[in-house]
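User: Predict structure, ligand magnesium ion.
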Amino acid sequence: MSEHQNATVLLEARPGAPESPAPAALEPSLPATTQRSPTPPSYVWAIETRGLTKRFGQATVVDGLDLRVPAGSVFGFLGPNGSGKTTTIRMLLGLISPSAGEVHLLGEPIPAANGRVLPRVGALVEGPAFYPWLSGPQNLARFDAAGSDSRRVGRNERIADALARVGLTAAADKKVKAYSLGMRQRLGLANALLHPCELLILDEPTNGMDPQGTREIRHLIRDLAENGTTVCLSSHLLAEIEQVCTHVAVMRLGKLLAQSSLQELRATTVERLRVITTDTELARATLHAYGVVVTIADDGALNIDPGEHSPEELNRVLVTAGVGVRRLVLESPTLEDTFVALTGEGFDVAQ
Ligand SMILES: Nc1ncnc2c1ncn2[C@@H]1O[C@H](COP(=O)(O)OP(=O)(O)OP(=O)(O)O)[C@@H](O)[C@H]1O
Ligand SMILES: [Mg+2]
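Assistant: Predicted complex:
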């Protein structure tokens, strides 16, 4: 068994039959927005796939995916380049047909219920296409007119509001051919936000954006989630996902390695105490005698697995032994540390 399969076993928090209701382990970690929503959704999973598979010729690029995105979550769909995220999202939205498997969005089967469901879903998929000779608002006006709710009334306000939400008001009147990559991405996002939706699916929403833009998108996503929208966003940037998501799934080579709440994922690894002292060797010997496992980092810091001991207790032990404690930090593992621990390797591994 490979280390990837091991990781799946460790993190398969939901081993039950796919049609089973929300497993108990997941419920406490559902975000508050789900509970606060005035009219809670009738479905447990905003997105649910069963054995979702896509083959291009001989290549299976999405392989038996059982994806479950809880209603009300901000769900990070992670994976290195080429792992199958965009292909999965295209299948979710009925843009391409699966080779096998099923998709349910908002509790309804896709593509059978496309007409009922897709108007309630906003989406930004890789490389959104625009009319290059038209401005941002002119492009949005065309998309708005072609949408399922093509009312002319309020169109200008809808467009102005969507552009403002993605920070594109000032630059909007340029022709799209003169937009930068980040500006195109913002316009794609504005298009996804033209109408209120229950589920927003965003494929690499911050692609090409500067740090300021990335931060703005994070705020926007939080804001949408607080208002009850389920947001599913794909990314290959772990740090980005960590800051905004409540749940994550990790894909590699078309397979789902893991899916869980961020809380559950973090619980699989332990906190570590990092201590810098006036006397590394005496500190190590003192803690060793106290029955604590210590390793010494290259910079002389003590890395401690505190086990049952509290930081203040270990601090007292060191000080009593005459060791000066200059710095003592309890470090939580980053998401990247967690994946390395689970998969046995880094995230950005070439396929
Ligand atoms: N139309 C297609 N025909 C053949 N192969 C395809 C097609 N579309 C995607 N693929 C292949 O499927 C695999 C997954 O691609 P996909 O675009 O879904 O990855 P991704 O996870 O979105 O990657 P990235 O992070 O780079 O956007 C890749 O190996 C890609 O070459
Ligand atoms: Mg992609």
